[in-house]
Amino acid sequence: MTEYFANADLDGSALIIAYAGLFIASFTSLFSIVNPLAAMPVFLSLTSGYAPKDRTQTAKKATIYMFAVLIVFLLVGTYILNFFGISLPGIRIAGGLIIMRSGYSMLNPQTGGKKLTEEDEKAALGKEDISFSPLALPLLSGPGSIAVVIGFASQANNAVDYIIHAVSILSVVLLSYVLLRLSPAVIKAIGQNGLTVMTRLMGFLVMAISVQFILSGITQYFQIAI
Description:
By secondary structure, the chain is mostly helical. It has helices at about 1-5, 10-35, 35-45, 50-85, 90-105, 120-125, 130-140, 145-155, 160-180, 185-220. It is globular and about 55 Å long.
């Protein structure tokens, strides 16, 4: 999509619309995979003994770490691909498989989109500071999110593309912080059933994104025109 924007002769208004579309696509893809809604119950469980002020501070630190992780991979993603000799089709297919696993977890009634194993949660309960691990990694910025951000970097054609993706990352981070901070009220308002329904909807969207990643990788590798 960004290749078209870079090569097309667009006037000012069309260019704004094009970049707005890029931002929306970037934001929705990343938000669906980060899925802070599914992170809220885990966050509440891990901070159950915290005072409200400490819980807010933990959410703030976790989302700052999350932003740092995703921005780093956005900036160095292409260098990582080049260093390991990984092609763009390869990262798209691998990223699609990782994202598909995450989407399946959201759709699976047995896991309900659970983002941490029981072992991880038990280990976290013994930590003094859980903001980086397991909250920032892997709860909020896990392998799926990192794969998507590296995909963003590999498709960026100019500085404006990078800025748009960075703004979308910041938007997801800020929204994640708000949801984590308000998680007691949000869960109370929508209930567990509402949270499950929203997680399933996110899961369906994530599965669609993963399939598109895989198809894009396959068609580009075999140079298939669609």
